[in-house]
Amino acid sequence: MYITCLDMEGVLTPEIWIAFAEASGIPELRRTTRDEPDYDKLMRWRISILKEHGLGLKEIQATIAKIDPLPGAREFLDELRSFGQAVILSDTFTQFAAPLMKKLGMPTIFCNTLEVAPDGEITGFRMRCPQSKLTTVKALQSIGFETIAAGDSFNDLGMIQASKAGFLFRSTEKIKADFPEIPAFEEFDELLAAIRSVVCA
Description:
Layout: E1 2-6, H1 16-24, H2 39-53, H3 57-64, H4 73-83, E2 85-93, H5 94-103, E3 109-116, E4 122-126, H6 132-142, E5 146-151, H7 157-162, E6 165-169, H8 173-178, E7 184-185, H9 188-199
Parallel strand pairs: 1-2, 1-5, 2-3, 5-6, 6-7
Antiparallel strand pairs: 3-4
Helix pairs in contact: 3-5, 4-9
């Protein structure tokens, strides 16, 4: 039995932090897991920048409310779930993801949680588990699933490499060059065909 594990940002939705960097006029916040492999370091850096500028959860959520899934993402997910199971594994946070899940047809998502003060200041974050994407893939495998995984960033490589089939989707030229053995796609129909060929083989 197969289950497809998908990254969210950059694969199904725009990058939230990039959108917020543009909305807030703080270009430093454009840095994502495509640029920084150490997620803990990246998040601590982001929180320090938010604190420096007096920004919190409310401001980020106002930006997220204006974000739509990437063109074709909802249709891709609907078609994928018509012939197999799928779950989104993301290093984003429940406070960010909820409105986007509604726009994607309420797929299952496993993500993390922000620590937020009463005044809305983001004071920290709680990861669901260490190496959450890889750990989750291994847990799914331990209960009888064969996993297929797709993502775009450094923090997706573990789950991609640990799965029976793994794909890069709209990744960077550097990641594609560093991992030429991983099939890389740019369009949803290509990714869907690759997943279908595994599930329906």
